Request: fold
Amino acid sequence: MLTPKEAEKILKQGVALNPGPWEQHSFSVARNARLIAEKVEGMDADTAYTMGLLHDIGRRAGVTGILHTLDGYDYLMSLGETEIARICLTHSFPKKDIHTFMGKFDCTDNQKVFLQDYLNKVAYTDYDILIQLCDAISLPNGACIMEKRLVDVAMRHGITDGMIEKWKAFMNTKKHFDQLCGCSIYTLLPNVMENSYQDLI
Reply:
């Protein structure tokens, strides 16, 4: 497993190839994942941070939709980082259905088949669902309530047929970590209310 410093270096290299707000979003996901993991017995905060940093590393290849999950997986597999590579594929799918993805389907038919088959077979760990959760609450400038972030994504990418079920899956994930932490995760994260009150557009 990469160390946090090694992951930060890889992220910086990726951002140099394709600069954009995904850099600050990735740091936001990583910081929030670390803060939550610190409260959960049996979870390693550095692992959560590293996975959060690199969940979107496929964006190093350019501005893409669903392809960023596959590009990230392929890149990290080439580095021998199988656990973090898995996160690249699972982070967008709290519901294991590729058709719930909000964005462009800019991959090949064979890649779609691979991705759906992978999701069908993989057993999600708490790390998978933690990064899903943090992806769903992390704006580039920090955490916000989940409902705001989900609306933000919908406004940018449009509505999909499976969106309500996907939102329910995200909310169930939040409940899961609320229970593991013994409190609302929002109380663990800085500036949630301030970020939530900011206008989307």
In short: The first strand starts at residue 138 and ends at 139.
